[in-house]
């Protein structure tokens, strides 16, 4: 950990060059370790110390961005000067007015020392416990366990000085039998909160129960999606629909439909970076405090998330969802997404299905087919099960789905009261908090051989 | 720098590492993107650091740092050794590496015009010029044009005596017009979707693309798609354009021939492979005209290099020969399982990442068909053009691809235009239905700059040579 004072002094050396009208700097630093295992043995074990500084210089409405991972005074100045040089040859961005002004940030505890200091040996011992537990049920396991810490600072010439340190830990486990597999995962800022025994147990139990899967034809099924499956759909729905860029470009299913009912009454989705029950983070990469944003409330399209530039274009204020300066052309993106919980439980949902399927998770989803209708396709993976007369019957060979998620979520029958934190591609800055979901109708369009 | 790396290697030897290597990497990147005549990305990045990989107690350890001092290298070496010892706690068998000649060499991409020396104003003028044509008086709501340039300097030293320097330059560009009307969104791209086409080389690659010449057509096709009928569903004869063939090769042949996937070590994220060891030399992967090679020596390919990140020289070898599945992409650790030496496919996406088996240039070899003759011989077939979506199961069997556009072939020419075409299949069934592949006149090597694999996620730049090909009785659409 470098700490706020030292980072601020380092960045000030460059910002004090004053080559533009305004400038900001983003510092990202991390020390992380990851242990991967497969065939019940560790095959990759890595450690990384990484940091990056982005400078953004504004000359009038012209913006230039340059970045470096070297923190010598000379290299920081060089990167800053590159940003200024780029700004000079840039074209004006009509939607840039000013960098954000200083703001107060909520005090959120996002750092746990034990997680930051979790050693490769500790990770290896946890992995060994997972391997041993699976071995007792004649399963092999694959997966990964990561732990680490990081710090993020945003400083600008208008006085913004934001700093937050974080820790993070996650584990995913695939248990494999001769003919089947099962999956479970865990995510927390505090590694002590991860119940490795329970996570391994869930993966192994699903693999054992799915042995000798049967073939079922593609078609429309009543389904129960477990939290990992729900989150992977939401990850794509978020990407194609909840950000300001697809909204303003009219490619989002939200475009032109705010205030309109777009899916089922029971569906409420929001973003809240300040909720400490998930992977909270108090500000964005422009130093703007994160606001809670209603995305879909009771099935009605309510809003999208903005950074400062797309907010100007949209005639509103930034919601605190800017990405790093090199990705600023992508607009705002929701990184702390919650699907509102219901009142049911997984056993209750299963008991209410006469003939259907339970999906543990999906694989390789793609949402670019038809974004205005939120059509997604993907495969089931690691534990597709048949439900018959209110009971889990056994494993089913994997199926491909292709469906409008708005249509499918329009058939929601129940949501679980319990939610799970699911890792997303944006990693330690947020996650998706999702319940299990009971849908009356979900369209499977293809099948595979296993 | 070289002296510091040598001292680090000597240190690893003194600590008893049975094997060790150190890789210093410095990457310079320039990304430019223009959206609707506004330059929304203009970014320059420099990243440098080193990674140390060691074998101790028969297990791997890897650690990396951006601080390239002698003291930090020693600290990172110790960390890598500690990690290796922790890895050994679950080790069943000690890692054994295939032999490799310890090369002492330097490799450099051939560059005619250094892209980092071309003035920014010139690049912006071209991208803005494209944007202007795409947005001109039309229903195109989003016009995006982009350029990306990468320069990677690498030094690789090993305890076995390898000492390799490489300087690789990569360039790419492309654009997309997105037309929007009444809740309908349609795209057309040039020369390919997903940021265009890429290769190893300099700004001459961008000039060769003749970006301005195609912008008007792209705009008009995007607009025409808004009112085109939905592509009909059902089993059809299809002709797939060469850029989509590249992605088809990528997903259904490139990934499943990665031996680490086959052996299960990527199962937790990307998945495994249906091309299990027992199928090598026995599985009829495709029809007899299907030949697929891995060729890291291919001039200009985005997957071209001199040596991989284990110091193994770039190679060309068969994956599918006359339809039979015959080869894998291997590493020094995995090749001995086949009784072979590595064929040189281990690459990391930076100094801070462990090398993994990655595709190089995985090429569908040209066939004999002349493109115009193929169209003339395919009345009623669908011509599918430019990827829009992609998805495949975790064993690489069931795939589904969406395309930007489809045309029905009538009288040897493009007829009715259709929107939202999708085709789906099972990999070996699909490749066995291939009855024509166009010749070298229609063959192009397409750069894929965003191939994801591994944990932490690594993004590799790879390529696929392909020409248009015809397939029979393929399921088009999803029946809805």
Write the layout of secondary structure elements.
The complex is a heterodimer of chains A (450) and B (480).
Chain A: H1 4-15, E1 22-38, E2 41-59, E3 62-68, H2 73-89, H3 113-116, H4 120-135, E4 140-156, E5 161-176, E6 181-188, H5 196-209, E7 219-225, H6 227-242, H7 244-248, E8 269-271, E9 293-297, E10 300-301, H8 308-314, E11 336-339, H9 346-351, E12 355-370, E13 375-388, E14 391-395, E15 399-404, H10 405-409, E16 412-422, E17 431-447
Parallel strand pairs in A: 7-12, 11-17
Antiparallel strand pairs in A: 1-2, 1-4, 2-3, 4-5, 5-6, 7-17, 8-9, 8-11, 9-10, 12-13, 13-14, 13-15, 15-17, 16-17
Chain B: H1 2-14, E1 19-35, E2 38-56, E3 59-65, H2 70-87, E4 104-108, H3 120-135, E5 140-158, E6 163-181, E7 184-190, E8 197-200, H4 204-209, H5 211-226, E9 234-240, H6 242-254, H7 259-262, E10 292-295, E11 316-321, E12 324-325, E13 346-347, E14 356-357, E15 362-364, H8 371-376, E16 382-392, E17 398-410, E18 413-418, E19 422-426, H9 427-432, E20 434-437, E21 444-453, E22 458-466, E23 469-476
Parallel strand pairs in B: 4-6, 9-16
Antiparallel strand pairs in B: 1-2, 1-5, 2-3, 5-6, 6-7, 6-8, 9-23, 10-11, 10-15, 11-12, 13-14, 16-17, 17-18, 17-19, 19-23, 20-23, 21-22
Helix pairs in contact in B: 1-2, 3-5
Average pLDDT of chain A, rounded to a whole number, is 96
- Distance between termini of chain A? 47 Å
Question: What is the string of SSEs of chain A from the N terminus onward?
Answer: HEEEHHHEEEHEHHEEEHEHEEEEHEE
Q: Largest interface here, residues on each chain?
A: A-B, 91 and 82 residues
What is the radius of gyration of chain A?
A: 23 Å
Determine the mean pLDDT of chain B.
Answer: 96
Described by the principal axes of the CA atoms, the overall outline of chain A is: globular
| DSSP, total strands of chain A | 17
């Amino acid at each position: 950990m470098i700490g706020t004072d030292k980072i601020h002094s380092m960045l000030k050396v460059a910002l004090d060059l004053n080559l533009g009208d305004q400038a900001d700097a983003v510092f990202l630093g991390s020390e992380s370790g990851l242990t991967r295992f497969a065939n019940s043995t560790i095959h990759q074990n890595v450690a990384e110390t990484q940091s990056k500084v982005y400078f953004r210089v504004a000359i009038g409405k012209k913006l230039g961005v340059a970045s470096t991972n070297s923190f010598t005074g000379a290299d920081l100045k060089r990167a800053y000067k590159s940003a200024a040089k780029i700004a000079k040859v840039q074209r004006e961005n009509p939607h840039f007015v000013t960098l954000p002004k200083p703001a107060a940030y909520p005090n959120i505890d996002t750092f746990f020392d034990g997680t930051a200091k979790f050693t490769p040996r500790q990770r290896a011992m946890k992995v060994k416990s997972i391997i041993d537990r699976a071995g007792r049920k004649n399963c092999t396991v694959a997966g990964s366990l990561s732990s680490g810490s990081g710090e993020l600072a945003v400083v600008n010439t208008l006085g913004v000085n934001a700093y937050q340190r974080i820790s993070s830990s996650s584990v995913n486990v695939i248990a494999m039998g001769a003919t089947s597999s099962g999956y479970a995962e865990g995510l927390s800022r505090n590694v002590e909160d991860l119940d490795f025994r329970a996570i391994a147990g869930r993966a192994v139990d699903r693999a054992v129960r799915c042995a000798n899967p049967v073939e079922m034809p593609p078609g429309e099924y009543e389904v129960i999606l477990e939290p990992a499956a729900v989150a992977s759909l939401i990850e794509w729905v978020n990407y194609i629909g909840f950000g300001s860029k697809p909204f303003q470009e009219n490619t989002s299913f939200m475009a032109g439909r705010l205030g309109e009912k777009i899916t089922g009454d029971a569906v409420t989705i929001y973003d809240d970076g300040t909720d400490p029950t998930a992977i909270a983070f108090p500000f964005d990469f422009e130093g703007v405090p994160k606001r809670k944003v209603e995305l879909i409330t009771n099935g009605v399209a309510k809003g999208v998330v903005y950074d400062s530039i797309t907010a100007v274009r949209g005639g509103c204020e930034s919601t605190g969802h800017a990405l790093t300066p090199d990705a600023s052309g992508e607009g705002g993106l929701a990184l702390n997404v919650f699907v509102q919980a219901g009142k049911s439980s997984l056993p209750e949902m299963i008991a209410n299905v006469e003939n259907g399927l339970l999906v543990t998770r999906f694989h390789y989803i793609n949402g670019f087919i038809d974004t205005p209708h939120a059509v997604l396709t993907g495969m089931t993976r690691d534990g597709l099960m048949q439900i018959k007369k209110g009971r889990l019957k056994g494993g089913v060979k994997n199926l491909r789905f292709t469906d409008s998620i708005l249509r499918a979520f329009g058939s929601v029958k129940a949501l679980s009261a319990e939610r799970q934190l699911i890792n997303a591609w944006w990693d330690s800055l947020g996650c998706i908090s999702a319940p299990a979901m009971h849908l009356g109708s979900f369209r499977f369009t293809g099948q595979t051989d296993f | 720098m070289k002296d510091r790396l040598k001292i680090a290697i000597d240190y690893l030897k003194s600590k008893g590492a049975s094997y060790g290597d150190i890789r210093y990497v410095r990457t310079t990147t320039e990304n430019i993107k223009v959206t609707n005549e506004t330059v929304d990305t203009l970014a320059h990045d420099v990243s440098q650091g080193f990674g140390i990989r060691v074998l101790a107690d028969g297990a791997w350890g890897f650690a990396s740092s951006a601080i390239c001092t002698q003291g930090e290298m020693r600290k990172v070496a110790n960390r890598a050794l500690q990690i290796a010892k922790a890895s050994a706690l679950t080790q069943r068998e000690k890692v054994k590496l295939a032999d490799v000649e310890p090369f002492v060499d330097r490799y450099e991409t051939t560059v005619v015009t250094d892209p980092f020396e071309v003035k920014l104003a010139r690049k912006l003028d071209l991208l803005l010029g494209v944007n202007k044509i795409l947005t001109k008086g039309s229903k195109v709501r989003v016009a995006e044009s982009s350029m990306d340039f990468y320069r990677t300097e690498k030094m690789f030293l090993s305890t076995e005596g390898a000492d390799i320097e490489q300087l690789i330059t990569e360039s790419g560009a492309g654009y997309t017009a997105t037309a929007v009307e009444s809740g309908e969104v349609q795209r057309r791209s040039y020369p390919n979707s997903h940021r265009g086409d890429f290769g190893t080389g300099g700004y001459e690659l961008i000039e060769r693309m003749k970006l301005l010449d195609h912008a008007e057509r792209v705009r008009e096709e995007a607009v025409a798609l808004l009112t085109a009928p939905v592509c009909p569903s059902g089993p059809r004869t299809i002709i797939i354009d060469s850029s989509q063939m590249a992605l088809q090769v990528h997903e259904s042949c490139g990934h499943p021939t990665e031996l680490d996937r086959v052996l299960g070590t990527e199962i937790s994220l990307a998945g495994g492979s249906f091309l299990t060891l027992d199928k090598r030399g026995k599985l009829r992967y495709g029809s007899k005209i299907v030949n697929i090679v891995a060729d890291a020596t291919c001039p200009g390919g985005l997957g071209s290099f001199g040596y991989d990140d284990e110091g193994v020289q770039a190679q060309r070898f068969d994956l599918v020969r006359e339809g039979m599945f015959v080869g894998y992409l291997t590493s020094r650790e995995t090749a001995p399982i086949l009784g072979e030496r590595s064929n040189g496919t281990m690459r990391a996406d930076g100094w801070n990442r462990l090398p993994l088996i990655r595709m190089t240039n995985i090429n569908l070899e040209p066939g004999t068909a002349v493109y115009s003759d193929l169209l003339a011989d395919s009345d009623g077939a669908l011509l599918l053009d430019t990827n829009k979506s992609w998805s495949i199961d975790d064993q690489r069997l069931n795939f589904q691809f969406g395309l930007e556009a489809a045309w029905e072939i009538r009288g040897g020419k493009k007829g009715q235009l259709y929107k939202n075409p999708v085709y789906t299949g099972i990999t070996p069934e699909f490749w066995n239905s291939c009855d024509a592949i166009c010749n070298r006149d229609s063959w192009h090597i397409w750069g894929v700059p965003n191939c994801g694999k591994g944990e932490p996620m690594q993004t590799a730049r790879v390529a696929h040579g392909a020409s248009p090909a015809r397939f029979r009785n393929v399921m088009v659409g999803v029946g809805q």
